[in-house]
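Researcher: Next entry in the queue.
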Amino acid sequence: MSTSLENKKIVSGDPAGRAFRQERVAVLPVAKRIRGLFAGRTVVDSTAALILFEHDHLPVYYFPVADVDEAVLVPSEKSTHCPYKGDASYWSIAIGDRVALEAVWGYEQGIEGAPDLRGYRAFYWNALDHWFEEDEEVFVHARDPFKRIDTLRSSRHVRIELDGVVLAETRRPTLLFETGIATRYYIPRADLRAELLRSSETITACPYKGKASYYSAQVGDRLVEDIAWTYTFPIPDIPKIEQLVAFYDEHVDVWVDGELQERPVSTWS
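Model: Structure for this entry, 269 residues:
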């Protein structure tokens, strides 16, 4: 549940990062220690990474070659071309009997107008077993430093309906505001119509909130799968949503203080 930074590049000399100019691809230095593990071995460990932003893509870490365990890399014949970054070469990771095919890439020749990525390597996030920022494990993808999440307790009257049937109603919601995503209303379990909800086997992960489990809604003969979710054990940064339940507003009617909210149009519509 995340969005990518679009067309933004920090202007050199602006340490606060508040001045921008339009670019297709942009990079920023990362002060965090970033580690990636595969088959029980640390294959990258860096305090000098770059984070790359590209229009309509998730952010990606690029690491100095010196911080990558080249002993486990096997060159591949694969190559790809990006008009914004150049020609990429690829490497597989081989440790014991485990191999991650073409999991690493790098741009060994720069092109005019693009960030200079020579001497850096990037990894497909899902190819590695574990990622850590400092000593905290991170899931799904690199965290976007431009994304902000605020969770605020509220006394607003929120009612969730599906086909005119009330699924939840509360005057004590927690509102979650996430950059680029519609407001989500997290509702105490005691304020749910629990008899209308069915536990789902679906589990997803968010790098900013943790692992989510899901509920489907049964209204009459209609079953709407995975219409709500909860973070039973959110990451420590987002404690206020623990055990609360949110619905996909794209598929339900949401009333806030007596006013029907417009359904957002998003990836989940």
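Model: Residues 250 and 264 are 5 Å apart (CA to CA).
Researcher: Noted, moving on.
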